[in-house]
């Protein structure tokens, strides 16, 4: 609980809608956007993570190839 006589939360101006809002701890989203403007972007990022099976398989194979290449570069023995 916050003290009544303590410091107030800083007022910020939203970079998207130019509305003033209080920046409170634990606010979801970006520090320069109001909670209303931060919510849709969070929902969009969750939807982008999906995809069909081919896309997931391709991504998985690419990640495995990257890991293997990094492993070879980091741990190869130079003669």
Protein described:
The structure is a single chain. The chain has one domain. 47% of the residues lie in helices and 8% in strands. It has 2 helices and 2 strands. The protein has helices spanning 35-48, 53-75; strands at 11-13, 20-22.
Summed over residues and divided by their number, the pLDDT gives a mean of: 78
Number of domains: 1
Intertermini distance = 63 Å
- In total, how many beta strands? 2
Structural class: mainly alpha
Biggest sheet: strand arrangement: 1-2
Q: Please write the string of helix (H) and strand (E) elements.
A: EEHH
Strand content: 5-15%
- Major sheet: 2 strands, antiparallel
Roughly how many Å is the radius of gyration?
22 Å
Overall, the morphology is elongated
The number of helical segments is 2
- The level of helicity is 40-55%
Low-pLDDT residue spans: none
């Amino acid at each position: 609980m916050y003290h009544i006589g303590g410091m107030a939360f800083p007022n910020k101006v939203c970079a998207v809608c130019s509305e003033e809002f209080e920046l409170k701890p634990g606010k979801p989203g970006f520090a320069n956007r109001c909670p209303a403007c931060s919510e849709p972007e969070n929902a969009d990022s969750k939807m982008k993570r999906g995809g069909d099976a081919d896309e997931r398989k391709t991504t998985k194979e690419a990640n495995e190839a990257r890991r293997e290449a990094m492993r070879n570069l980091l741990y190869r023995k130079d003669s």
